[in-house]
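dumping the sequnces here before i forget
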Amino acid sequence: MSARTAASTAAITVVGAGPGGLALAGAAAAAGADVRLYDVAPAALARLHPAGRLRLTGVVSAEVAITLATTDPASAAAGADLAILAVPPAQIGSAVRAIAPHLPAGGVILLAQSYFGGALVAAAALPDAGAAERIAVAEAAAFPFACSLAQDGSVHIAARKRRVPVASLPSGRTAAVVGLISSFVPGATASPSVLDTSLSDVSASIHVPVMVANAGRIEAGSSFDLFAEGFTASAAAMAEGLDAERLDVARAVGVKAPSVREWITDTYGVEVPDMRAAGKALAQVFGPVPAPATVRHRYLTDDVPCLAVPASELAGLLGLRAPVHHALIEIASVICGEDFRANGRNAELLGLGGLRGQTVDQICARLTGGST
Amino acid sequence: MSAEPTAVAVLGAGNGGCALAADLVLRGFEVRLFNRSPGRLDPIRAAGGITASGVVEGFARPSVITGDMAEAVRGARLVALTIPTAALPVYVELLADLLTQEQTVWLNPGHMGGALYLAAELSRRGRHPVPRICESVTLSHSSRMTGPASVRIFTIVSNLLVAALPAAAIDDCVRELDTLIPGHVRPAASVFETGLLDLNAVEHPAQALCNAGWLEHTKGDYYFYYEGTTPAVGRVIDAVDRERLALAQALGVPTMSFVEYFHQIGFTTAEAARTGSSYQAMQHSEPNRWIKGPPGLDHRYVHEDVGWGLVPWIDLAELFDIEVPTMRALTHLASVMNGIDYQADGLTLERMGLKGYSAASVLQYVQNT
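..and the predicted 3d for all of it:
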């Protein structure tokens, strides 16, 4: 990485021009960074106003200039201190292969929405990109904003998370990454390792139960608010069970991860007396969240294979039972018509295949890029 | 009808019990009608009997209308139970000391494992030998109460599949039921054939759990089968059904797919059945079309159809080495949602009297007991 570490002068490449990528690019530019936006799809970049102008509303209100918006990874990555990936989890590998060869030596790739083990998945793609030694990877436990794209092409940032744990793989670069993003992700916090960030992602507990408990209603096209109306007693009971199992896994590997309720309070400053109240709290933070139009929505198609599956596989390696994970993975797979365990971040994919019967330290070392 | 009048005890004076009692009285049998709660009986007692309409017409006067089970059961040749699964443990408790070796018990219907459970409970109480028990796959009389002492009988099921425990006693049971409702009864291979055709356990858990939010948020105010069985929910039903078919094959009993059976009993069109999809079957189910949902998950669709439907299937599947991941997942989610450990509290192998048996000896047991 270059000597420039203050975000106001940093060169940052944002990969992915969806609502999240645009919000990151806009927020970084508003903080004074030199921002380049890259997407494989010209149509996504066309959302930018001519001359790279981008308007932000909500908690960040600004009209900013993006230095470069391009489908050419070489020009997007040249000289960048940091590349932030805001792409769906299935595209992490291809995004790394596209962007890593063009980053300067010492550059870092940060996954803004990593899910469980995102940094491991990204690191596994580095050798293909000929960048194994030159480039480091890092991941955030949660996307820094709750945001959406408005009809007029502006980006609405409804809420900024107060706490966004970040860790690099291996952990040596964490402080530098936090330094590069803290001006536009003020909640960025150094986390001990990627195992901490991976196990601190509460999305599956929030999304998967409410989607399964409302699968029929979603497909029937009944219009309802996913969190205010769909997060009923049964959804809350499953969320509580799923969350407790994640916390068991975290405890077993020595990670202090927040519960869903603690996370909502830490992140949005809203008190959540019990899991039943979580739906109302989220509705309060996000405003209306219309139920998705299909069950094949990222709340299932990303959260199940990339969070629930790896958590349950790790539980299995550690000799823990995770029956709520198993049951939800099974039913979500049937609902979506896809075997999420086979297609997801299973033990094999995370490089844990040969570790059955190994010690907790050996398993953790594999997941954090450390050595035993 | 047999030459000597035969007293029949009908236990449970709901829709099915009143219909059966009225039909049998009008066919010339002496019928004793029992119900646990007096609320159902008082109006019938006041009227002196039941007014039947529909496929059977007339005023039917039972010889006894009672809240005392002994009065109904003593001396009766056949004891018919027309009760929901959930009531079975209480009835067994009351019946255990009353039944004699000469009597035949008819569980109408048996749901999954009703006869096995009754036999196990009687045997656990030292009742050897256990009386002959048979079970029908559904209620014999499809009916609705049209008043406190009147019942409309829509149909008497034809080809009513009946199993005996032990299966070796099937000829005697069929002969006996045939004296009551001649021409309506068809013998099943064993109680596994009738038990594996428990359609409620195939559809209701998926329909309730994958719509738990909808049920709870609207108190069931949508068309439970028609709107609630979307393609995704249908896939869950189909997955449960594939596991059930594999189990039936391992148990060596004939069966048919959910949609096939659903069509056979007149609940969906032939065209929908040919697709093999539960979603299509529900889209084209006239009888179910306008039925709304229960107010929440504290309901027999979960308590009975998971605890006394999926749980005994899961336990048998384990014994016969059949993988049933969808049944297991639904059972676990139901347990989490309702805070009830269905796998422990439901109809386990132990409650069916099959604990400790090998797969081969289970098959032997249902044949010969």
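The first helix of chain B runs from residue 15 to 26.
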